[in-house]
Write a structure and sequence with these properties.
254 residues, alpha/beta, Rossmann fold, 4-stranded parallel β-sheet, two-stranded parallel sheet, 9 helices, globular, binds zinc ion
């Protein structure tokens, strides 16, 4: 398979060439937080990176360095977790995205792997697109991915550290999945408004008891993730194609 292009590995001559052909920039965003006893604590970043790599290849783009620390909330009491004050995080991400734009990237795609980042990212998206004539999208990959769960796994979608993320890590880094550690009685937790517990009693957060649990079948993980990535790719293709109707609206004003 062709190797993705990573911005941090390029020299300025190579970057100039990317800007000239308006290569899309993919920014993976995750966090550091526990993901049950069977998945690595960097799962959110690893998943976002994998999706970004595949998409960058499909669209001749480039992958920016990841944001590995995010707004961990629910698992903040469980080591190791990362946390920023929300306004600091917003400013940090917003300034970096804005500067990528100022330096010539006009099509920026953020691949988010963590639910806790969503609100801050939505705010950034609104703010930046008001200020600059750029194309910016944020893809919460696991939300989109939930639509393929029933079809491939014959179960309802899960949630944190459940069937979706387990599939993504099995697909990209099976060496980081420790099947033996997963015990549903210990790891599963169905959050409820009746009990607000921090930390929750388990890190595999499910919407419904016995549904969406991690599955360790690598072949299924491949089938599932290929559907997810292809689906995102199709949506993005349509998005890129739609710029044509803007007649140069994505060009900088100056
Ligand atoms: Zn996660």
């Amino acid at each position: 398979m062709k190797k993705a292009i990573y911005l941090k590995e390029l020299n300025t001559v190579q970057v100039e060439a990317l800007l000239k052909r308006e290569a899309p920039l993919f920014i993976p965003i995750g966090t550091l937080e526990p993901h049950g006893r069977h998945l690595p604590v960097g799962t959110d970043t690893l998943c976002a990176e994998k999706v970004a790599e595949h998409l960058s290849l499909a669209f001749d783009g480039v992958v920016a360095p990841s944001f590995e620390y995010g707004l961990t909330n629910v698992f903040l009491q469980t080591s190791p977790s990362s946390f920023f004050p929300v306004d600091l995080y917003r400013t940090f991400v917003e300034e970096i995205v804005k500067h990528f734009y100022k330096h010539g990237f006009k099509k920026i795609i953020i691949i988010n792997g963590h639910g806790g980042n969503q609100e801050a990212l939505k705010y950034i998206l609104r703010n930046i697109t008001r200020e600059a004539p750029m194309a910016l999208t944020i893809i919460n990959w696991w939300i989109y991915a939930s639509k393929f769960v029933e079809e491939v796994y014959n179960t309802k979608p899960g949630g944190h550290a459940a069937v979706e993320e387990t599939a993504a890590i099995l697909y990209s880094r099976p060496d980081l999945v420790t099947k033996e550690n997963y015990i549903s009685e210990v790891d599963d937790c169905v959050p409820s408004d009746a009990f607000w517990m921090f930390p929750p009693t388990g890190e595999v957060l499910l919407e419904e008891e016995g549904q969406g649990q991690p599955c360790f079948d690598e072949e299924k993980a491949d089938v599932y993730m290929e559907k997810v990535i292809k689906g995102i790719e199709n949506r993005l293709r349509k998005w890129f194609a739609s710029f044509d109707r803007l007649h140069g609206g994505l060009r900088p004003n100056e």
